[in-house]
Write a structure and sequence with these properties.
alpha+beta; Beta Polymerase, domain 2; 4 helices; 6 strands; 22% strand; globular
Length: 133
């Protein structure tokens, strides 16, 4: 494989992961997730390209957000490679390979401060894909 083809495939994967991240943001927004953030972290880690971070109002809401993302993406044939924290419902992590979704309750989000931990990450503007209440 030549470098041109490899670069094209890498650019396509980055575009696909951004599309997936934005779709997750849309689903979360439609289901009243709070404090939505989209961070591009692929310059800081090889683990993933994007973090989607949001806050739920209660354990039930957090589980509902997780379930809705899994359901809506599953309809498109996209399934998470892993889900952790569902039983506790205070911080659920969903691994979609190039996109990691973190759904927190307020206390856990304030405690772990992922945005501060990943302060060097690019904060992607999502104003054009979320609704204002």
């Amino acid at each position: 494989m030549d470098n041109t083809q490899n670069t094209a495939e890498q650019n396509e994967a980055k575009t696909d992961s951004l599309v997936l991240a934005e779709e997750i943001v849309k689903i979360l927004d439609a289901n009243k997730a709070g404090q939505l953030k989209l961070l591009r972290v692929n310059d800081q880690t090889v683990m993933t390209d994007y973090f989607v971070i949001c806050t739920g109002n209660s354990n039930t809401h957090i589980k509902s957000l997780s379930g809705e993302v899994e359901y809506k993406l599953g309809e498109q044939g996209v399934k998470p490679t892993g889900i952790d924290g569902y039983d506790s419902g205070i911080w659920i992590v969903m691994d979609y390979g190039h996109v990691m979704l973190h759904i927190f309750n307020r206390e856990q989000r304030d405690f772990f401060k992922l945005e501060k931990l990943w302060a060097d990450a690019e904060d992607i503007n999502i104003e054009n894909i979320i609704t204002e209440d």
